């Protein structure tokens, strides 16, 4: 049974298709048993929400394109096979509205995206809005695809704003390269910017952290002139040979000291081969310094999984555990937390990372059996049967760590020096708060809440019993 809906968000329950279907009932029992065996239950004292729209997975960038929305199918299959959805409030998201998309993107770009006809990618330059080339092809349903992943991030941010959620997850989001009027690096609309704009309605300061292997340039650029958002990006940096070629250590925001955004950009440029130990230690050091100086009231963490060893595009040596340790550290800061996906071009490892990170969000990582459940859909696609393959299993050939301790120490020192210029908890001018373009928002939220309170008891029972709820795996 699909939960009550309105036009803004739809609540849904666990993944079962047909009432009375013997296979589905068997599957539902297996999942329930798996959840019990792994100690999966609703977290005590906080709420985790999961925002997704299965329609997103059906889109194709083209056969040889590295971005495979199918990775979301794999991730969702593994997350639900463990029964982690029992521990979260799950929502099928709606598409972002044209007004919401226009809060960041220009109207002519949105109009072009909406009417662009699918065509074979052509490699010559000078495409309008950078659309139609090899990186950002125009495919069937492109506008819907973008509106859906953006809608999911906006919904997630709003759940944090109205305190219905403490950790909100949208693995289909995290498209950090998209610009105001330009597609870039497989990203067409910047759901992160749109989500942060939502958070800024209620939060004086938002810390954006990016652990994708690529520089989070689109988000950095969007908020470069405000002191209400600090952006921190950890990425492989090579100006000439690695996309997008931006994000050096000395890129710290506008040079004009009178610009409020000065010193509110933090870049952590890294070389090939960084491993779990070095990365997590650096991450904790840098983020703790940023939190101490900036004092954010909410955090957005982009969990791009192309920073894992064995990624088709990324040259780092991170394991699922090290990537997840960054999520655990952010969670430990006990601030409203939005987790979004991002890059990730070896689907089986993307699914592993985001499943492990979901388990961290709901607090069952310590009791989770690393052996993938036998009933996991497409289990053979994972190759190794564990959630945590070793570096040898992830990499086809070993890759040297080219980040020296000396260079890491220089990076930390430089960032700490720069952070000294960040005013401790800057004051918020009311005129800086983005206008609420849809005045109905609060009313709609009230309606959702009332609806939900009415149904909470039924919903709780259904979740516990795990029967008779529609959703396709
Ligand atoms: Zn990336």
UniProtKB/TrEMBL annotation:
Active site per database record: 177
Primary residence: nucleus
Single Gene Ontology BP annotation: epigenetic regulation of gene expression
Region (Disordered): 448-473
Biased segments, Basic and acidic residues type: 449-466
Positions of substrate binding: 135, 185, 345
Binding site for a divalent metal cation: 212, 214, 306
GO MF annotations in UniProt: histone deacetylase activity, hydrolytic mechanism; metal ion binding
Catalysed conversion reaction: N(6)-acetyl-L-lysyl-[histone] + H2O = L-lysyl-[histone] + acetate
UniProt keyword terms in alphabetical order: Chromatin regulator, Hydrolase, Metal-binding, Nucleus, Transcription, Transcription regulation
Gene3D superfamilies from the UniProt entry: Histone deacetylase domain
GO cellular component: Rpd3L-Expanded complex; Set3 complex
EC number: 3.5.1.98
Domain Histone deacetylase: 65-359
Annotated localization: Nucleus
Entry's family note: Belongs to the histone deacetylase family. HD Type 1 subfamily.
Protein's name in the database: Histone deacetylase
């Amino acid at each position: 049974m699909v939960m009550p809906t309105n036009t803004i968000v739809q609540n849904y329950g666990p993944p079962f298709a047909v009432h009375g279907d013997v296979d589905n009932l068997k599957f539902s029992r297996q999942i329930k048993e798996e959840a019990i065996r792994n100690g999966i239950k609703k977290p005590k004292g906080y709420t985790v929400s999961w925002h997704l729209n299965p329609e997103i997975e059906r889109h194709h960038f083209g056969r040889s394109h590295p971005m495979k929305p199918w990775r979301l199918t794999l991730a969702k299959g593994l997350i639900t096979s463990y029964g982690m959805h029992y521990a979260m409030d799950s929502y099928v998201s709606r598409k972002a509205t044209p007004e919401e998309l226009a809060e960041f993107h220009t109207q002519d770009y949105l109009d072009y995206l909406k009417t662009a006809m699918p065509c074979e990618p052509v490699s010559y330059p000078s495409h309008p809005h950078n659309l139609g080339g090899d990186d950002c092809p125009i495919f069937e349903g492109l506008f819907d695809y973008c509106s859906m992943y953006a809608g999911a991030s906006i919904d997630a941010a709003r759940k944090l704003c109205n305190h219905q959620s403490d950790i909100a997850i949208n693995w289909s989001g995290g498209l950090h390269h998209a610009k105001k009027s330009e597609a870039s690096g497989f990203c067409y609309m910047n759901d992160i910017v749109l989500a942060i704009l939502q958070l800024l309605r209620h939060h004086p300061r938002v810390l954006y952290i990016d652990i994708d292997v690529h520089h989070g340039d689109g988000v950095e650029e969007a908020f470069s002139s405000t002191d209400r958002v600090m952006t921190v990006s950890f990425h492989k940096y090579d100006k000439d040979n690695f996309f997008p070629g931006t994000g050096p250590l000395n890129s710290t925001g506008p040079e004009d000291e009178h610009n409020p955004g000065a010193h509110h950009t933090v870049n952590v440029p890294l070389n090939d081969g960084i491993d779990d130990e070095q990365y997590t230690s650096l991450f904790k050091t840098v983020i703790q310094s940023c939190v101490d100086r900036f004092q954010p009231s909410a955090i957005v963490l982009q969990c791009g999984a192309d920073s894992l060893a064995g990624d088709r595009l990324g040259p780092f040596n991170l394991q699922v555990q090290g990537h997840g340790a960054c999520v655990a550290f952010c969670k430990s800061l006990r601030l409203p937390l939005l987790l979004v996906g991002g890059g990730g071009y070896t689907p089986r490892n993307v699914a592993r990372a985001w499943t492990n990170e979901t388990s961290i969000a709901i607090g069952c990582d310590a009791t989770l059996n690393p052996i993938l459940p036998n009933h996991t859909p497409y289990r053979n696609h994972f190759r190794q049967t564990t959630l945590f393959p070793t570096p040898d299993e992830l990499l086809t050939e070993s890759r040297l760590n080219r980040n020296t301790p000396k260079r890491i120490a220089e990076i930390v020192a430089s960032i700490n020096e720069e952070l000294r210029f960040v005013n401790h908890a800057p004051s918020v001018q009311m005129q800086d708060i983005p206008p609420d373009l849809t005045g109905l928002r609060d009313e709609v939220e009230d309606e959702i809440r009332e609806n939900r309170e009415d149904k909470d008891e039924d919903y709780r029972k259904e979740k516990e019993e795990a029967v008779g709820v529609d959703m396709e795996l």
